[in-house]
Amino acid sequence: MISEEKIVNWLAVKSDVNVKMFPERDELTQLRLQKLLYFIQGTYLSLYDEKLFDDEIVHADYGPLAVKAHAKYEGKRKLNSLINWEQALKDFSELNNIPKVSLVLNSVFNKYADVSTSKLVDVTHHQKPWNSVKSGEEISPKVLKEFFDSIVVQANA
């Protein structure tokens, strides 16, 4: 499994470049991070039948929430000021050189790069994994995989 911090760093770098190129797009906030981690974990589970990072994803008011990442960034809206950019660039490069990981990170990021954070919240609220559990309960990897199996296009399908 990949360190969740490395994934957050990868997302911070990718998001920073994205917002510089397209200023109208949403920055990486705590809320946006949570939605992207959910989509990344679900996609990775679907494609490779294993978790990419070791964190529980639970039902929260604003959609799926990765517990450890939420605890680390709780109360922080914009994450750019919290990132160690030297390490983030190293992690970005490292993860881009792992084909399976790079495929998922880039695919998920590119799919949602121009989707507003509020729309991401709305999308997750209409998906089975979030609706299948009560507030505070874990969305099991099995439920995530089953749902993402129905929406992820697989190369061998």
Key phrases:
single chain; 157 residues; mainly alpha; two-stranded antiparallel sheet; 8 helices; globular
What does this entry show, briefly?
With 157 residues, this protein is mostly helical. Helix content is 59%, strand content 5%. The protein is globular.
SSE blueprint and pairings:
Blueprint: H1 4-21, H2 30-48, E1 57-60, E2 63-66, H3 67-73, H4 85-96, H5 99-112, H6 117-125, H7 128-131, H8 141-149
Give the strand order of the largest sheet, numbering strands 1, 2, ... along the chain: 1-2
Content-based structural category: mainly alpha
Number of helices: 8
- In N-to-C order, the SSE pattern is HHEEHHHHHH
Biggest sheet features = 2 strands, antiparallel
> Which blocks of ≥5 consecutive residues have pLDDT under 50?
none
Number of strands: 2
> How far do the termini sit from each other?
25 Å
Name the average pLDDT.
92
- Write down the domain tally: 1
Strand content: 5-15%
Radius of gyration: 15 Å
Could you say which overall geometry the principal axes of the C-alpha atoms support? globular
